[in-house]
Design goal:
Layout (H helix, E strand, L loop, with lengths): L2 H17 L5 E13 L4 E4 L4 E3 L14 E9 L2 E9 L12
Antiparallel strand pairs: 1-2, 1-4, 2-3, 4-5
């Protein structure tokens, strides 16, 4: 492969990378639930951010004031919850053992 061909491939790859939209990425956050909106399927944490819950979510397991660890996928400004776990008094996340 010639140097000219390598440069051409490199410039095409770079240009293509710039054209691709930003991919969604995963993240997590912990805080206290400030508000639950079952109509909009959202919660707002003490960080002030809104998190979108799945359409068929069991809201009976959540309450305002509850400390939680939220795992989410982010797409632009939207945060879609993939998992949510309570945080106990010791600061440990997870479902309490019975």
């Amino acid at each position: 492969m010639t140097l000219k061909a390598i440069r051409k491939l490199l410039s095409i790859a770079t240009f293509s990378g710039l054209l691709l939209p930003m991919a969604a990425f995963a993240g997590n956050s912990q805080g206290r639930i400030e508000m639950i909106d079952e109509t909009a399927n959202t919660i707002i944490l003490s960080d002030g951010l809104t998190y979108q819950l799945p359409g068929e979510f069991d809201y009976s397991v959540l309450s305002e004031g509850m400390k939680v660890l939220v795992f989410y996928d982010r797409d632009g400004e939207n945060r879609y919850v993939t998992d949510i776990e309570p945080i106990d008094a010791d600061g440990k996340a997870g479902i309490p053992e019975e």
